Amino acid sequence: MKILPPVLVMIFTGLMIALGQWLPGPDVVPWPYNWLGAILIIAGLAVTLVAGQRFHRIGTNIRTFNEPTLMVTDGLFAWSRNPMYLGMAASLVGLGIALGTLSPLLIAAAFIVIADRWYIRFEEAAMRRKFGDAYAAYTQRTRRWL
Questions:
Q1: C-beta separation of 122 from 65 below 8 A
Q2: pLDDT at position 16, please?
Q3: How many Å is the Cα radius of gyration of the chain?
Q4: Are 4 and 66 in contact (CB under 8 A)?
Q5: Is 1 helix (H, G, I), strand (E, B) or coil?
Q6: What is the per-residue pLDDT for 110?
Q7: Residue 120 maps to a domain
Q8: Residue 18 maps to a domain
Q9: Is there a domain that residue 77 lies in?
Q10: Handedness of CA 81, 83, 84, 88 (dihedral sign)
Q11: Which domain holds residue 85?
C-alpha cells in the first residue's frame, strides 16, 4: 500500500495529538514558549501550499508515486528540491513544539526520516530516470531540504 505524504501527515498529526494527551513524555517546551510552534505550523502549511500551487499552475504531476511530467526548478524549488516535504515537516515540528512534550516531537522526527529515506529517494530516482543530466545539474545547485 502506498500512502501519499499528505495522508501520512494527517495520520501523524492525529498520532501526535493522541500521544501528547495520553503518553506525552517529559515536557521539552514549556508554556508560553510552546505557542511558538504555531508560527512553524502556519509557515510550513504556507510553504507546502505555495509549492503545491506551483505544480498545479504549470500542470505537472504532484502525486508521489506517478511518473514526473515536468521538472520544477523555480520559485521555492530554487531554494529546496523538496519544499512541500520541508513545509510538511515544519508543520509537524511546529505541532510538536505546540504540544510541548517529547513523544509528539519524536513522531515529527519519524516523518522527516520517512520523507527523506522513502518518498524523496523514490522521487529522486524517478526524476533521474526521466530528466537525466538536467536533474543531476539541479541536484548540484539546489539542496535536498534547505
A1: yes
A2: 97
A3: 16
A4: no
A5: coil
A6: 98
A7: yes
A8: no
A9: yes
A10: positive
A11: 35-141
Q: Which residue has the cell 508521489?
A: 64
Residue 80, Cβ neighbours under 10 Å: how many?
18
Q: For residue 24, name the pLDDT band (cuts at 50, 70, 90).
A: confident
Report the chain's mean pLDDT, rounded to a whole number: 96
Cα separation, 35 vs 29, in Å, equals: 9
d(CA 145, CA 87): 10
CB 25 within 8 A of CB 101: yes
pLDDT recorded at residue 67: 94
In the predicted structure, residue 1 carries a pLDDT above the cut 70: no
Q: For residues 134 and 127, what is the distance between their CA atoms, to the nearest angstrom?
A: 9
Q: How many domains does the chain have?
A: 1
Q: What's residue 58's pLDDT? A: 95
Report pLDDT digits (tens) over 55-89: 999 999 999 999 999 999 999 999 999 999 999 99
| Whole-number Å distance between alpha carbons of 130 and 16 | 37
> CB atoms < 10 A from the CB of 21, how many?
11
Average pLDDT over residues 39-51: 98
Please check whether residue 1 lies inside any domain of the structure: no
Distances (CA, A) of 116 to 24, 55, 122, 127, 141: 25, 20, 9, 15, 18
Gap between the Cα atoms of 53 and 74, Å rounded: 13
